[in-house]
Structure formats: structure tokens, C-alpha cells
Automatic annotation (TrEMBL):
Keywords: Cell membrane, Membrane, Transmembrane, Transmembrane helix. Its main location: membrane. PROSITE patterns: SSD. This is MMPL family transporter. It comes from Exilibacterium tricleocarpae. It is a multi-pass membrane protein. It is found in: Cell membrane. The keyword Iron-sulfur does not apply. The keyword Cell membrane applies. GO terms for cellular component: plasma membrane.
Length: 776
């Protein structure tokens, strides 16, 4: 260990001496490197595709893409009309619905619009099947008895009742289906803005109603908008926070300026690196900028705090800069490597935005390391940083040294009590359950969340699509298969989680009734294939453009989709429904049909599980990597094992606390373990390296070395903990709930890591006998 440490320290000393002597040249070279990397930032943009959260190999995504290729894209914008007084069956409300329906056809990329007024109502007139809009001309609304007719039809039509119109008539939906390229953020945002323009125009004309905008396209738009909002609010807040903490800790405006320069340049490089990789920013990956500037300051704080201490103890400024850089190069290098590996392990995640977050953060960490041992000494040389020499009686003591002494006196009690508390907290982890409802990803102040919450009491929350496969072309028209679809739809309607079911079997039953003189006894599936085929042909020939059944039955007539609108259910409840539905079809199909669940809800319901499984693998790789690195650098398997224990335990304890605070975890929480372990290893590295340095350079015994470690590294550890904790806690103010959870849980883990390292490490290091001490 001594040889490795000495080599790294000598490298740090050489670089520091060069930086001090050639300050302007060093600054120029560092800025040139940052500009080269940061120039890639011109390629950064915000993604308007919610599917970016799913990897190309994600099986649920593959099923969903096949679903979209068969039935058209699932992107939509829904105008939810809610009268301020009374129900929707009022002439002015129906006029508004008619106007929205007409205007929705003008939305960019629109392919279909469904509403109460353009619903394709069917009835018999002699031997003819009449198919027409419920309200074709706006003038029809004023006809006597029209409101009663609309209400009667809506309440008795399964494809309207509780799907287009609320059960008690308190709301209705106009749904516009879009064929938009989600990869072009401008197109998604443009469609969303066009919908808002319609909303504003209608609200001005019809003040007696309220309109909420929901749907997949509004969701995609919200992802982009939240990412932009977070970048505009969190980054300035983080800079303010860092500035305040550094001023309090370093007690120098110029030292704070030096640290802020490291932060700014590291962030520019990290985000620019993302641009070179053509990364599209999302609410997750945009957090890289906040994370980089939070982490980048840690290295600078350690070096500046050491310089301050040396200057206060009588050393001149330039020698203090060189010595502070040299003595911290080893721990700073080691922590930069382990932290970068922690973020790079996010590439194991099943969600690409976490790959982007990890890669940009790792690039920023790399640049922060380079700048801390080159640019920082150069800048400190040029800036008028001054610290007064302390009186002799105060030079050998510090608050952190006193804290270390207090813990050392009660080290065994502190060890036992801390270990017991950790064990209790860890035992609570099994109480955690997965719950990742995408509609609750957004803060309640965000419009998409407000729209979803306002819609939920009337129509439920999300849709689950069930694709029923008859195994061969044209089999959809087989009566036995249609009976399977009918029975499956009726089973779904009986499930407590289901608010509505949209099925082609309801259309076939209505057509069979219409073409048999509207006799109620014929409201059932046709009893032969030829008849079903004729009914469907007559019906489709009567449908206007854009309202055909291609979104319900595939072109080969082999598969059909059944849409189940679910109520406000948890992830576990939704997955249970999906499993039960699949099992029901397998056991009860008379035709041998199979069912495949898909849709946005299904996608998000399984991403948490996949992320946890993937990040478990990444976490194992990270732990092994840290063990090897610590063992090699310190030439001690014991130190390697100690590092893993001291940095894994706080993460587990944090999850135990989270089980009490929240009780649920989503897909973003899976990344916390890798990120936190990569961050908090900083404490162990700095304490152990200072401990070992005291014994090697100054011949101190164990207890004296522990006090030296607290004295020289303690203040910087507290400062970086304050910055890291506050920085990640600041993510809790994000409008995007996955960021909120990840930030808050990581902040808890960071704070716990400092406390646990301070309380446990003195006891562990004191267990060494004199013989072991000499070997070390």
C-alpha cells in the first residue's frame, strides 16, 4: 500500500508544482479540454418519447411495438369535458363537444377522433342498416327531445357508457388518436400545444365547462416539459446551495469561487459528453447536471479544506497548495474511480435514461478529478485566497478531532449500538413493495397530473390492452372465437379493478340485433361465420373515413384487441389482473385462443421489476470492483472487505427507513444502491488513507492515527456530506416523482454513511493488535 500511495502522492505533487509554476498554461490547457468535451452540448435535446424509458430488448416493449404496428400507434390526446354545473346533456355542453370534435380533426398527425357526437350509431330501417353520427350537424342539437335521446343511447351503449361518457353523465371524453413520431420532440410538443390552443379557444367560448387534457401524447409532452422545468429550477438552486455551504465551511469567498469553477467546468464537460453520444434528455438524465455539480465539489472541498488547515498552522500559501494536493491525490483518485464505477454500473439498468445519467455523471466525475489536481492548484495560486495563522494552542486541535476522541473513548459501545440499530432498520426491508403507477410520476402541480386526477373519478385511470389471437387468418369471424371474446369481456367487467371494457363482441352483438329488426332477443353473437362476415362488411362500408375497425381487428382478421380501463389500482393489483386474465383465457377458451397483455400501463408495471433485477447484477459487479480496487490500492483484503461493509450497510439501512417512510419503491429506486455506494465510499477512502498515512509518515499508533484521520479528513467529509445530502435532497423538489424518490433516498443513504463510518470505523480499526499494526 505504501508504494502505491507514495507513487500517487508523488504524481499529485508533480502536477501541483507544475500547476503552481505554470498557472496560466495549466488553466488554458484545462479550459481547452473542457471546451472540446463541452462542445458536444450543442447536440443535446429533450426527448418527447415516453418509450425512451424502455430498452430495445425489453419484452413488454417488443409486444407493444407489435401492437402498434398492427392497430396503429397508441398516441392520443383526450379532451375531458366536465360541466361546472349539471350533466353533459345540455345543449351548450353538446355544442362544445361537437366543436371540440370538429377542431380535433385538425390536430397535427391526427388519424381518428372519437366522441359522443360522432359515435357511429346503428339502427335498422326495414332491411337497411343505418350507420350515422349521433349528432352530424350542430343544428340538430336544438331539436326537441335531443338531449333525452342522447342520454338514452349513451346509457345503454356499452361502447359509450363509462368509456366516452361517465356513468352519471358528469363528464365525457373526446379522444384524438395521433400518428406522431415520438422521436421528434418538436412534433410531440407541437401537437400538445395545438391541443392546448383548442382547449383555450373552447373555454373562452363555453365558460360553463372545464376541459382537461390527458393521453399518451400529453404524457410524452409532460416528460419533456418537466425535464426542461427541472433543469431551469434545480441547477440554479444547487449552485446557490453549494455557494452557501462552501462559504460556511471554507470561510473564503475566493476559495468558494475556485470550487465553483471546478463545478461549472465539470458540468459543462459531462453534459457535453452526453451530447457527443447523441443523448436525448429526459426527466431522469437531465438530473446528471445537478449530480455532477454536487459530486464535483467534493474533490475540491477536500483539497481546499486541507490547504486551509495547513495555512492556519503556519505553512505558506504555495507550499500549502502543493502539499494539500499531494496528500489528497491518492484518496481523490480512488474515490473518483469508485464513484465513476458506481455511476457506470447504471448501464446495467433496463431503462436507457439511467444509462445516460450514469455515463454523463461518470464523464463529469472524471473531469472533476482532472481539474482538482491541476486546474484547482493553478486557480488557487492566482486568486487572493488568505487564511490567518491560528494561535499555537489552537493549531493542534479541531472540532472533528475532539469528536473523534469522544467516539474513540466509547468506541465499543458506539460500534455495538450502531450495529444493532442498523440490523433493526435492515430487517424492515421486506415491508417494501413495488408500486410504479406512471400516472403518479408527476407532481400534483403539473397539469398532466391535475388532468389525470380530475379524470379518475369519472373514467378510471389507465388502459390495459388484451390482444386475443385466434391462431389463423379470418378466424376472428368464427362464432366460437367471438363467444370467447364475449365471455372474456364479461369476465373482465366483473373484476373490481375494471371500470370499462371495449370489445368487438359488443359491436357484433349490436349489429346482429340491428339486422334482425332491432329485436332484443338477437343481442348476441351471430351463430354462423358467413353471417358475421356479412354484418361486418356492411358495417365497415357504412363507416366514415378514420372511424373504421382497423384499430380493433387486424387486417388478416386473426387478432382482435379488448381494451380494459382500470380504476385507481396499484402496480401489484394491475399485474394480478393481467395474470388472472391470461390464466382465465388459457383455461376457458373454447376456440383455443391466446391473450397477450400490452399497453402503456403494462409497460410501466414491469419496468420496476426489470430495473431491480438488472441493477442487482450491476450492484454485484460494483461491489466486486470496489473490493478489488480497495484491496489492490491498500494491499489489504481486510480493508477491501471493510470498505464494502461500511458502504453497503448505509444503503440497506436507508431502504429500511424508506420502508417506514414510504413503503413502496418504483423503477428509479433500483438505481439508488449503485449510486449511493459509489458516492459514500469517499468517506472510507479518506478516513482509511489518512489513518494509514499517519502510521506510515509519522509513526503514530492506532488511536493517534484515528484522531489524525478525523482531524485532517473530518471537516471535509462533513462538508461534502452536507453538499451531497443537500444536493440529492434538492432532487426531492423535482416535479418528477422518480427523481424525488431517488434523490431523497440517496440523501438518506449519504447522511447515514457518514454517521456509520464515524461511529463504526474507530472500533474496527482499534481491534488491530500491535502485531497487526506493525504489518500494516
Amino acid at each position: 500500500m505504501a508504494q502505491i500511495t507514495l507513487s500517487v502522492e508523488n504524481l499529485g505533487k508533480t502536477l501541483a508544482e507544475f500547476s503552481v509554476k505554470r498557472a496560466w498554461l495549466t488553466i488554458f490547457m484545462c479550459i481547452a479540454l473542457v471546451i472540446a468535451g463541452g462542445y458536444g452540448g450543442k447536440n443535446l435535446g429533450f426527448s418527447g418519447d415516453y418509450q425512451i424509458f424502455f430498452g430495445d430488448e425489453n419484452p413488454e416493449l417488443q409486444i407493444f411495438l407489435d401492437f402498434e404496428a398492427t392497430y396503429g400507434k397508441a398516441d392520443n390526446i383526450s379532451f375531458v369535458v366536465i360541466p361546472k354545473e349539471g350533466d353533459i346533456y345540455q345543449p351548450r355542453v353538446i355544442e362544445a363537444i361537437h366543436d371540440i370534435t370538429t377542431k380535433a380533426w385538425r390536430l397535427p398527425f391526427v388519424s381518428r377522433v372519437d366522441s359522443l357526437t360522432n359515435f357511429q350509431h346503428t339502427y335498422a330501417e326495414g332491411d337497411d342498416l343505418i350507420v350515422e353520427d349521433l349528432i352530424f350537424e350542430k343544428s340538430e342539437i336544438a331539436q326537441p327531445g335531443q338531449m333525452e335521446r342522447l342520454q338514452r343511447i349513451a346509457e345503454n351503449e356499452p361502447l359509450l357508457h363509462e368509456f366516452i361518457t361517465a356513468s352519471n353523465g358528469t363528464a365525457t371524453i373526446i379522444n384524438a388518436v395521433l400518428q406522431v413520431d415520438r422521436k421528434i420532440a418538436e412534433d410531440v410538443l407541437g401537437a400538445a400545444q395545438a391541443a392546448r390552443d383548442i382547449q383555450a379557444e373552447i373555454l373562452e367560448q363555453y365558460p360553463s365547462i372545464d376541459i382537461k387534457l390527458t393521453g399518451a401524447s400529453m404524457l410524452s409532452s409532460a416528460f419533456s416539459e418537466v425535464a426542461m422545468q427541472d433543469s431551469a429550477t434545480l441547477i440554479p438552486a444547487m449552485y446557490l446551495l453549494i455557494t452557501v455551504v462552501m462559504l460556511l465551511v471554507l470561510r473564503s469567498l475566493w476559495a468558494t469561487v475556485a470550487g465553483l469553477l471546478i463545478v461549472i467546468l465539470s458540468t459543462i464537460f459531462g453534459m457535453g459528453f452526453g451530447g457527443w453520444l447523441s443523448i436525448e434528455l429526459t426527466p431522469i438524465s437531465v438530473g446528471a447536471s445537478t449530480i455532477i455539480l454536487t459530486i464535483a465539489i467534493a474533490d475540491a472541498v477536500h483539497i481546499i479544506a486541507a490547504m486551509r488547515q495547513k495555512m492556519q498552522r503556519g505553512l505558506e500559501k504555495l507550499p500549502a497548495i502543493v502539499e494539500a494536493t499531494a496528500t489528497n491525490t491518492f484518496p481523490v483518485t480512488l474515490t473518483s474511480i469508485t464513484t465513476a464505477i458506481g455511476f457506470l454500473s447504471l448501464n446495467f439498468s433496463d431503462s436507457p435514461p439511467f444509462h445516460h445519467l450514469g455515463n454523463m455523471a461518470a464523464a463529469g466525475i472524471f473531469m472533476a478529478w482532472i481539474l482538482s489536481i491541476t486546474f484547482l492548484p493553478a486557480v488557487l495560486t492566482l486568486l487572493p485566497v488568505k487564511y490567518e495563522v491560528l494561535p499555537k494552542d489552537k493549531q493542534n486541535g479541531s472540532v472533528m478531532k475532539s469528536l473523534g476522541a469522544a467516539i474513540l473513548r466509547r468506541r465499543y459501545a458506539a460500534f455495538i449500538l450502531t450495529a444493532a440499530t442498523c440490523a433493526v432498520a435492515i430487517s424492515l426491508i421486506p415491508r417494501l413493495e413495488f408500486n410504479d403507477v406512471w400516472s403518479k410520476y408527476f407532481d400534483e402541480n403539473i397539469k398532466i397530473r391535475q388532468a389525470i386526477d380530475a379524470t379518475r373519478p369519472h373514467f378510471g385511470t389507465d388502459n390495459i390492452e388484451f390482444v386475443i389471437d385466434s391462431s389463423a387468418p379470418q378466424n376472428v369471424l368464427e362464432p366460437v372465437f367471438l363467444q370467447d371474446v364475449k365471455a372474456f369481456s364479461e369476465w373482465l367487467r366483473m373484476q373490481p379493478e375494471v371500470a370499462h371494457v371495449y370489445s368487438v363482441s359488443d359491436i357484433m352483438k349490436r349489429l346482429n340485433k340491428n339486422l334482425n329488426e332491432d329485436k332484443p332477443d338477437f343481442y348476441d353473437i351471430p351463430d354462423n361465420r358467413k353471417l358475421a362476415s356479412q354484418y361486418l362488411l356492411v358495417y365497415e362500408l357504412s363507416l366514415p373515413y378514420g372511424l373504421d375497425l382497423n384499430d380493433r381487428i387486424d387486417i388478416d382478421r386473426q387478432r382482435t384487441r379488448v381494451t380494459a380501463t382500470i380504476r385507481d389500482t396499484s402496480t401489484v393489483e394491475a399485474r394480478t389482473l393481467i395474470k388472472n386474465a391470461t390464466d382465465w383465457m388459457e383455461k376457458n377458451s373454447q376456440f383455443g385462443a391466446t391473450v397477450s397483455p400490452t399497453g402503456n400501463t403494462t409497460l410501466f408495471n414491469y419496468i420496476a421489476d426489470r430495473n431491480v433485477q438488472a441493477m442487482f447484477e450491476g450492484g454485484l459487479v460494483l461491489i466486486v470492483a470496489i473490493f478489488i480496487i480497495m484491496t489492490v490500492f491498500f494491499r489489504s483484503a481486510g480493508i477491501g472487505l471493510l470498505s464494502i461493509i461500511l458502504n453497503a450497510i448505509p444503503v440497506f439501512v436507508a431502504f429500511g427507513i424508506w420502508a417506514v417512510v414510504s413503503g413502496t419503491v418504483g423503477f428509479s429506486i433500483a438505481a439508488v444502491g449503485a449510486v449511493a455506494i459509489g458516492l459514500v465510499i469517499d468517506y472510507t477512502v479518506h478516513l482509511v488513507s489518512k489513518f494509514m498515512s499517519a502510521r506510515r509518515h509519522y509513526g503514530k499508533n492506532n488511536q493517534e492515527s484515528i484522531l489524525y484521520a478525523f482531524d485532517t479528513a473530518g471537516t471535509a467529509i462533513v462538508a461534502t456530506t452536507a453538499i451531497l445530502t443537500a444536493g440529492f435532497a434538492l432532487l426531492a423538489t423535482s416535479a418528477f416523482k422518480p427523481n424525488t424518490d431517488m434523490g431523497l433516498l440517496t440523501a438518506i443513504a449519504i447522511m447515514l454513511a457518514m454517521v456509520i463510518n464515524f461511529l463504526i470505523m474507530p472500533g474496527l480499526l482499534s481491534f488491530n493488535s500491535k502485531e497487526k499494526e506493525n504489518r500494516l
